[in-house]
């Protein structure tokens, strides 16, 4: 039982390049989330998927797209990377879209955009 | 909107000292409250939670009580250890039509020295 896994762990991009961050969970959770973590700002929600087949914008969606590929996998795509997207990205999942549910986090992807 | 305010860090303590990290929140409705911990180089993991007023969450010697009257959820531990050194995040969650979305504070770094 690996929980939430993310790939890659670290990536360097040049401005304008594209990439996809991968996330998978093996806990049979319905809901999945993408956050970014920046110094002094805590974690901010980029996109989430309350259930398979649905996705919605979070607090900071501009410059990103997501795909809920199946119940296990939720990917985050940067179409044209910008230095402002340098951050640590965390994927999370929860059993259901309930306010009481605990979210389980992956180890993160550290992205540097030059 | 919803927001979480927690004390600035870093907080530096000697081993066996008493710890308090303050957290206050603003929310419409009745949130669930969480403390997450992030050890160096890792993702976030749930430390404790409380889902209704006057509930006390506890885990690994840490405690926090959901105080609706003061809109607070302060984290306490009677005797900290070096291994408690980490960043602590207070967060709230309210069920909305779009699901379970966490709002985080900015995090408080704790350093425990021998």
What does this entry look like structurally?
The complex is a heterodimer of chains A (114) and B (114). Chain A is mainly β and 114 residues long. Chain A is 0% helix and 49% strand. Chain B is mainly β and 114 residues long. Chain B is built from no helices and twelve strands. Chain B has strands at residues 3-6, 11-14, 19-21, 23-26, 32-38, 44-50, 56-59, 62-65, 75-77, 86-96, 99-104, 108-113. In chain B, the strands form three sheets. In chain B, strands 2, 5, 6, 10, 11 and 12 form a six-stranded mixed sheet that branches. A four-stranded antiparallel sheet of chain B has the order 3-9-8-7, with no helix packed on it. A two-stranded antiparallel sheet of chain B has the order 1-4. The mean pLDDT of chain B is 92. Classes of the chains: A mainly beta (114), B mainly beta (114). The A-B interface holds A 4, 31, 33, 40-45, 48, 50, 56, 58, 90, 92, 94, 96-108 and B 4, 31-32, 34, 36, 42-46, 49, 51, 89, 93-95, 98-102, 104-107.
């Amino acid at each position: 039982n690996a929980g939430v896994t993310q790939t890659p762990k670290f990536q360097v991009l040049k401005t304008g390049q594209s990439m996809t961050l991968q996330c998978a969970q093996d806990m049979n959770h319905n809901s999945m989330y993408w956050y970014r973590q920046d110094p002094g700002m805590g974690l901010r929600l980029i996109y989430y998927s309350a259930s398979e087949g649905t996705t919605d914008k979070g607090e900071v969606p501009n410059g990103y797209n997501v795909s809920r590929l199946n119940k296990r996998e939720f990917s985050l795509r940067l179409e044209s990377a910008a230095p402002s997207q340098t951050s640590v990205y965390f994927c999370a999942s929860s059993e259901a879209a309930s306010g009481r549910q605990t979210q389980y986090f992956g180890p993160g992807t550290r992205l540097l955009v030059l | 909107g919803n927001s979480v305010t927690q004390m600035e860090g870093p907080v530096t303590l000697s081993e066996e000292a008493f710890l308090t990290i303050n957290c206050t929140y603003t929310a419409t409705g009745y949130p669930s409250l969480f403390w997450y911990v992030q050890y160096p180089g890792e993702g976030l993991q749930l430390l404790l939670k409380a889902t209704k007023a006057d509930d006390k969450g506890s885990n690994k010697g840490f405690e926090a009580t959901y105080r609706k009257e003061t809109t607070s959820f302060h984290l306490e531990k009677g005797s900290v250890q070096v291994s408690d050194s980490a960043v602590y995040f207070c967060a709230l969650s309210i069920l909305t039509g779009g699901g379970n979305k966490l709002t985080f504070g900015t995090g408080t770094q704790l350093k425990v020295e021998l």
